[in-house]
Amino acid sequence: MSSANPTYRLLIALVLAVVLIALDQRSRWVDPLRYVLGYLTAPVQYLAHLPVDAANGVMRLTETRTRLMESRERLERQVLILEQKVQRLAVLQAENTRLRELLNSSANLDASVLVAEIIGVDPDPNRQELVINKGLRDEVSQGQAVLDSEGLIGQVVETGPLSARVLLITDASHAMSVQVNRNGVRAILAGTGQGSRLRLLYVPDTADIREGDLLVSTGLGKLYPRGYPVARVVSVNHQSGASFSDIEARPTAHLDRVSHVLLVQSMEPVSAPDMETDGGDAGAGPADEADTEDADATE
Amino acid sequence: MRLNSERPAGTGVILVTLVVAALLEVVPLSDTFNWVRPEWMLLVLLYWVLSLPHRIGVLWGFMVGLYQDVLVGTTLGQWALAYALGAYFMQAAYKRMRVFPLLQQSAVVFLLVGSAQLLAFLIQESVGRTFYPPYTILYSTAASAVIWRPLCGVLRWVQLRFLVR
């Protein structure tokens, strides 16, 4: 066993590691290796999540009758409000489709949705990532947008067989295109590396952005579906002398509190006016295919 | 322990300890505790290199590191590189390490874990995925050095109980 010189072994290991790093950075050739190892790492992720699951189970068992009644009442009220909103939505959607037909542009409001549970958080404080319990086997693909009930959370950056990693919008390496819901001013929303803090980059001092403005995704860049709320502006500082103003925002999604997320696959992420598309069938297809697999919700 | 000429045994036990280390590596903690999370995988690996230097070495370091890479989602090869190097140095120093007093042993572990983490940090920096300054790795390195002795006790018990050699 120990006949080989450990220094040679080390050299081989070092060369191999450097090659792996280079390949992983520059190509997708090592993805199969990552995929295979994913079968071994996913069980550990699931196991690490078990105590949290168990605690939740115990909480559910010990919940009192009055608490349950209360929450049921609250949910019923919420359903009522949502149903009322949906009624209006149907009309608005039809109107929107008609108007878009007039403009000869395609409408892609809806997409297929998959519910996933968060089973892990990245232990490295340098990175803001989550692990979810759906992977390639559930047809999760790289680049899929991840949302919670309040807004956008991030995107899938890595898919294992049984789990996937989600890069949060607050990660320092993340940036996306957003627009102010009020007036359509576009800007780049970048993560800061700290939880629940975002910054708008390169916004001219004269841009009409105020505190409390809702920022929604534009769909430019073809990664995120268009029109989902992302963040709310919390402070705008005009600095005299600087060419850009300093704008801070807070994600609308509860990044640190969610336990279930929605994975959205936008069918055709292109949503800018497109002259080539035939307006006739626009919007009809994707809207019908919106199937929500909320098995967890009905339990 | 008996003679070294005996057949190696207990690979399964070593793997189980590594899986437990992996669990501790990803178990969710609050932000504050996240900073002082010891490098469990590396510590367990170092222990086995120290007690079975002819069996566990660079190759194990590389494989465990690769596993760690996929587990925590870093660039493939980042921890493999760091762990292989850590295992190599432990293999080179195991004779002295065994006779060192407690404090000195912890100091060596501090240096080994620290250099491995620094290496991993540099690689992560080069791919643009670091945010906090490099000295922040010192927290978990210090935690690793502190936890080394109790961990050794536990693993020693495991080793004798399940006859790993």
TrEMBL record, chain B:
<comment type="function">
    <text>Involved in formation of the rod shape of the cell. May also contribute to regulation of formation of penicillin-binding proteins.</text>
</comment>
<keyword id="KW-0997">Cell inner membrane</keyword>
<feature type="transmembrane region" description="Helical">
    <location>
        <begin position="12"/>
        <end position="30"/>
    </location>
</feature>
<comment type="similarity">
    <text>Belongs to the MreD family.</text>
</comment>
<feature type="transmembrane region" description="Helical">
    <location>
        <begin position="70"/>
        <end position="90"/>
    </location>
</feature>
<dbReference type="Pfam" id="PF04093">
    <property type="entry name" value="MreD"/>
</dbReference>
<keyword id="KW-0812">Transmembrane</keyword>
<feature type="transmembrane region" description="Helical">
    <location>
        <begin position="42"/>
        <end position="64"/>
    </location>
</feature>
<keyword id="KW-1003">Cell membrane</keyword>
<dbReference type="GO" id="GO:0005886">
    <property type="term" value="C:plasma membrane"/>
</dbReference>
<dbReference type="GO" id="GO:0008360">
    <property type="term" value="P:regulation of cell shape"/>
</dbReference>
<keyword id="KW-0472">Membrane</keyword>
<keyword id="KW-1133">Transmembrane helix</keyword>
<keyword id="KW-0133">Cell shape</keyword>
<feature type="transmembrane region" description="Helical">
    <location>
        <begin position="135"/>
        <end position="158"/>
    </location>
</feature>
<feature type="transmembrane region" description="Helical">
    <location>
        <begin position="102"/>
        <end position="123"/>
    </location>
</feature>
<dbReference type="InterPro" id="IPR026034">
    <property type="entry name" value="MreD_proteobac"/>
</dbReference>
<protein>
    <recommendedName>
        <fullName>Rod shape-determining protein MreD</fullName>
    </recommendedName>
</protein>
<dbReference type="InterPro" id="IPR007227">
    <property type="entry name" value="Cell_shape_determining_MreD"/>
</dbReference>
